[in-house]
Design goal:
single chain; mainly alpha; sugar transport
């Protein structure tokens, strides 16, 4: 039986084919993983030439990390973790409940709600900057200002149209017979949601977890609008501030960039199985 590659070509065999695959895989590895490795090596190299990166340093050192700690990079990293932790927890919570309501319940105007959610994804951050800053300065009804606090960076990312749409479409594919059987056994609304529907949504939770983490972690405009003191900066915003400081060396910036990149990579590695299952769940039926 002939095996075919992803391009639909017959898989070649023999020593030259193995050599070709090795060269191809090495090239792909260098393209995708090379920048990360070069960044990591540069962050822990004592003297860094900003015009040249290398994967084979002469000597490794923690000098750049020590200088980064003196520049409060770890404090900025902690702020980023607090924002992404609180924001992602709220985002997942809102997404699963909103997806359940839109996918499993029938009510007037559900199509309009989906269109409005989709419309929010089409607006660039620059368009939302002014109304968002006004809203955070004086919350309606509560008349509380969230400017100058990490809470002001968490609340706006609690609902994201992409995550809601992913959960809605995934929950639509869950057979209604499972829900009806649970109701016949005496299960209430919350039990059906918690014990029947939600466990089947683990692949979708992996998808929204990775994308949500990356979206919140990479936020720059929102912290720029909310933070009023450098102590409130998240790491992406702090990197811009450190870059404008002539006294900060390139090594400190490389350490900050490495610390900013590492959590996203670890999050993907931790959730990659659920992420892949979520992307391929609708590809094969039966």
């Amino acid at each position: 039986m002939r095996n075919e590659t992803a391009l639909g070509l017959a898989e070649a065999r023999g020593p030259w084919a193995r050599v070709l695959r090795f060269v191809l895989y090495t090239a792909l590895f260098m393209v995708f993983a090379g920048p990360l490795l070069a960044l990591m090596v540069g962050a822990f190299t004592p003297t860094v030439d900003p015009t040249q990166f290398t994967l084979w340093p002469d000597r490794l050192s923690l000098d750049n990390l020590e200088r980064a700690v003196d520049r409060n990079v770890l404090d900025y990293l902690l702020n980023s973790f607090l924002v992404v932790g609180g924001g992602l927890a709220l985002q997942v919570l809102v997404s699963v409940f909103a997806g359940y309501a839109l996918a499993r319940k029938r009510f007037r105007g559900s199509a309009v709600v989906l269109v409005l959610i989709l419309a929010t994804m089409m607006l660039p951050e620059e368009v939302l900057a002014v109304p968002l800053s006004v809203l955070l300065a004086d919350l309606p009804l509560l008349h509380v200002s969230l400017v100058g606090s990490l809470v002001g960076m968490i609340v706006p990312v609690a609902a994201w149209g992409f995550s809601i749409l992913v959960m809605t479409e995934f929950m639509k594919e869950i057979p209604k017979e499972l829900e009806e059987s649970a109701r016949l056994d005496g299960a209430g609304e919350f039990r059906v949601f918690w014990q029947v529907v939600l466990p089947l949504c683990r692949p979708a939770l992996g998808v929204i977890g990775i994308f949500g983490f990356t979206m919140i972690w990479d936020q720059y405009m929102l912290p720029l609008l909310v933070a009023t003191d450098p102590a409130q900066y998240t790491l992406p915003l702090a990197l811009r501030s450190l870059r404008s400081d002539d006294q900060v060396g390139i090594g400190v910036l490389l350490v900050g960039a490495f610390l900013a990149m590492l959590p996203s990579v670890l999050a993907f590695l931790a959730l990659q199985r659920s992420f892949i299952r979520g992307l391929t769940s609708g590809a094969v039926k039966g």
